[in-house]
Input
Amino acid sequence: MSLLAAAVAVTGCSKKDDAPKTDAATATASSNGAMVVKIGHASPLTGPQAHLGKDNENGVRMAIEELNAKGVTIGGQKVQFELESEDDQADPRIATTVAQKFVDDKVSGIIGHLNSGTTIPASGIYHQAGLVQISPSATNPKYTQQGYKGAFRVMANDVQQGKVLGEFAVKDMAAKKIAIIDDRTAYGQGLADEFEKAAKAAGGNIVVHEFTNDKASDFTAILTKIKGVAPDLVFYGGMDGQGAPMVKQMQTLGLKAQFLGGDGIHTAEFMKLAGAAAEGVTASLPGVPLEQMPHGADFKQKFEGKYGKIQLYAPYCYDAMMVMAEAMQRANSTEPAKYLPEMAKTNYSGVTANIKFDDKGDLQGGSITVYRVVKGEWQVLKTVTGQ
Output
């Protein structure tokens, strides 16, 4: 199914009787008579992760624009989706404030947050309010282990990602002595811990595990200590804003270990900030390469024509919005309590994958792809499916 057809499919099977009376609690009327359905989106729109946050926002926005252009009818009434986007600054405390604002504003669902560290605390507020939340990019497994029926994600989690990375480090990169650094965020620490388990199980020796934070820029002390134990490989759990200066400082100190990370460093921004030091860096990304995604080529052409180069998670944000809209369509309602049961039944042919959820809200059969920077470009090394 093409992306255009996917958008049309969301509009196609409404029951025109039985329009839910309680939908007025989460929707208002537009000037053209359509029911306005508010969708909340939250990500860091300012600060060092703003490039990723705007990418997420634009993925949701493109889906909403396509749905509105095609015309969606739910419960016998034409609807108009309206994006309400908030800046959580990748800060857990701000994320909870944003979450409460969405509740107060009576949004019908949330696409977000970007980071695990913001997604998890915000999810408790959404759960208490009975809202549906789809995270397009939070990978910490705890998000869907809380027992919240309204929590979903559309990419593989860090149990899957950490396992692939740990095994790849030992078996494919021949690392025997491994140093780990993580930024103590829910994402960075969670991924590093899963990596450590998998690397040990594969026969690797963790010689040191150091910690930093997601605001740091000088890693000289940590890297000097690591250099003293002469590792074959340094694994970093964190984002591109710290990963880039870290690899540059490794070069300056003469620390010649291989460098491996997760999706947080698999960005164009990482290569821009790291410069020549990015060459040879290896990182993973949940999902298959964009070119191999079911509708990846179409999405790339449309998205980059509007917003410029895809940073990272935009295709997943697009899919998350389409999945939510389709569930509303099947339920004949935009009311979260009524369309939530349909979320669990999702079987959607998206840009990124055929999307189905397990009983926790995790993506079934998620893939992980490992990449390496070769001549200034991320090149595919290996894709592992169904972890």
About this structure: The first helix runs from residue 3 to 9. The longest strand covers residues 77-87. The radius of gyration is 21 Å.
